[in-house]
Design brief:
CATH architecture of the largest domain: 3-Layer(aba) Sandwich
CATH superfamily of the largest domain: HUPs
Oligomer: single chain
Radius of gyration: 20 Å
Strand content: 5-15%
Number of domains: 2
Structural class: alpha/beta
Distance between the termini: 31 Å
Largest sheet: 5 strands, parallel
CATH class of the largest domain: Alpha Beta
Number of helices: 10
CATH topology of the largest domain: Rossmann fold
């Protein structure tokens, strides 16, 4: 129930979806006796789209999340293993063309490969099943195995967690697959914007991991003065940031993370 509800609310609350819906309602109201309200809704949707695309709203939402956990200190010693979270592979495209199609979060996989080569004794765990509301038999981990092997990671070092559908399940099922022992050091590789929620979920699951943030979407507060290359760039970044803030709130009120904004 939690999974389905979070997916539905997540879709509705995404700013671009919500603004398009407002515009559609406005258009539908134009030929009715509510035409005045329809015009106002239509104008509001257009102006808000422009605002999200041009104003530094996305930066204000992104930077607090991306800067929450610092970059990992490579001088602190060799890790036991690396956990890379799913959400990096397009299942439909990968299946359709029978080659691994990475999405905007593909840096999670490439960072894991880099760590695998840097630390040849570390185990590599990919955690990701199928996060669709109505899933099919495709699993992200299966395609991840292919690309990890193709990029030179030996198969005997790779462990797969194929059943998780969201971040909370990433944590629970990864712990079950790995069975971490006292004294082990596990790195958690995921997008910097997603790291607070991911770290909170792993802590709630009783799995101590160290943050290894990648896939940054901003250069920090200096980007406040940078105009996006297109409206869609600013809107897309706002969508991802709002999704993360909403996810943090839902996870907190449902007890999936211990505090509203987990930190170091």
């Amino acid at each position: 129930m939690f999974f389905a509800l979070s997916k539905i609310l997540g879709f509705i609350a995404v700013p671009s979806n919500l603004l398009v819906l407002i515009g559609i309602v406005g258009i539908a109201a134009l030929p009715t006796r509510f035409s005045g309200m329809g015009r106002r809704l239509l104008i509001a949707s257009v102006l808000l789209v422009a605002a999200l695309g041009v104003l530094p709203i996305s930066i204000a939402l992104t930077v607090p999340l991306e800067s929450r956990f610092p970059q990992w200190d490579s001088g602190s010693g060799e890790p036991t293993g690396v956990i890379v979270l799913g959400g990096t592979i397009s299942l439909t495209l990968s299946y359709a063309h029978q080659q691994v199609a990475l999405n905007d979060a593909g840096e999670r996989v490439t960072a894991a490969v880099e760590l695998a080569h840097k630390y040849p004794n570390a185990r590599i765990v990919f955690s990701g099943g199928n996060g669709a509301l109505i899933p099919d038999r495709l699993r992200e981990a299966d395609f991840a195995l292919r690309i990890l092997e193709n990029l030179g990671v030996q198969s005997n070092r790779i462990m797969l967690e194929r059943e998780s559908r969201n971040t909370a399940e990433n944590a629970i099922f990864s712990k079950r697959v790995i069975g971490p022992k006292p004294g082990e050091r596990w790195l958690l590789v995921t997008s910097a914007m997603h790291m607070p929620r991911a770290m909170g979920a792993f802590r709630h699951a009783g799995f101590a991991v160290e943050a290894y943030p990648v896939d940054y979407r901003s250069g920090g507060w200096a980007d406040v003065w940078t105009v996006p290359g297109s409206l869609m760039e600013g809107i897309a970044r706002t969508d991802v940031a709002v999704h993360e803030w909403l996810g943090l709130f839902i996870y907190w009120i449902t007890g999936q993370i211990p505090v509203p904004l987990p930190g170091p």
